[in-house]
Amino acid sequence: MEPTFSPPLHMQRHQFVIDFVKRNKTQKVVDLGCSECSLLKKLKFHREIELLVGVDINGAKVKRKMHGLAPISSYYLQPTYDQLRIELYQGSVTQKDVRLRGFDLATCIELIEHLTLADVERFSEVVFGYMTPVAVIVSTPNSEFNPLFPGLTGFRHSDHKFEWTRAEFKSWALKVCLEYGYEVDFTGVGQAPPGQQERVGFCSQIGVFHRLGGRDSCDMLYGDDAEDMFSYTLLYSINYPSLRDQNILRRVLVSEVLYWAEKLKGRWLEQKRDYSFTLCQTERRGEECLGVSERRMEMENKQTAYATAACGAEMCGRGVAEDTERKDEELSWTNVQGQHELHRFVSVPLAVLWYRCPKVSALSGNLTNLKHILMEAPEVKLSQDGSAVLVQDQGFEEKGDCNDLEDSGYAEASQYSHSDEQEEAWDTNV
Q1: CA distance linking residue 100 with residue 130, whole number of Å
Q2: Which CATH number fits domain 9-239: 3.50.50.60, 3.90.550.10, 3.40.50.1970, 3.40.50.150?
Q3: pLDDT the model gives residue 330
């Protein structure tokens, strides 16, 4: 009976590598003989990896698939502090290249059987003697399993130069360990049918090599006399977006600040309009009113306290009493004289944004950093002392009605937004 594998055998080999990376938190990985980059395309989603490199002698095959390693759109829309760089090279595993030294893991998945035995010796010297990764995963066909494939004569692939038994693979692996200072564990993927596992072993046998002394012993090997050899041709390289990049951090932070400043402004104005409407309705039913100037001042004070407290409680889940005590954090209006007209802005203090918006505080770290970054962002308008973000109140220029005048709290605003007839009519209503 022909053996079947579920999942398919190539997926089991890849999953073996992925599980190793997750278990060991591997940061620098090189896949030797990466071919069409299928393993690399899976590893790129594991963000513990910071450097992912692929090498293959067939550059044309790599070029056909390499763009599949580009970041997907979500990485740009929601970058994290994780960082990843991907590089692809054309080159032979029998040649030395200094850019491949010092990796945490080198994978050689179904590769060595495509080399001549003489090249296997050079491969051993390059990988274990020159590259000296902390760990190496080597998988290769187990020839003892071949009789279970009906009709198979010779090797499993026409390009294979050999296929080792378990004993032959073990002999080579132990020789490598002795010469280059590694130890090895033997395992595999692709289970044999029931009752035959012990007799034939795994379909793909795997050796997991660990350098004696780990990372420390690797560092000792890199002296100033190391050969700076550049034998490979770089085909592709890309850096994934990361918040560790100051330009990306600035872009994301500015976007968050603008979004939340507009959101807080809108909530604050909404609460003020609601309060103003309720107060006007009460007065129009004949209740006693104050003088115009006193009434405006009292309304402004009440509106500000009401809107700020409500905005803080609804938007950020903070207690009303706590927020109303922060007099320096209250939102307010400020007028800016333009060339031909007066513009009104809602002033959103940076302290409000930092305390009430967790992502803004997480990205900036502290108020000083937040102020420093925003001062260098031309798309953000700050107050003169840099303590608040100014968000334009578009309704002030567009409407110019009596409610806007009442809400503003600035007597001088009436010179620009109301005619004398409007002011007289408003007084009559009072």
Answers
A1: 9
A2: 3.40.50.150
A3: 78
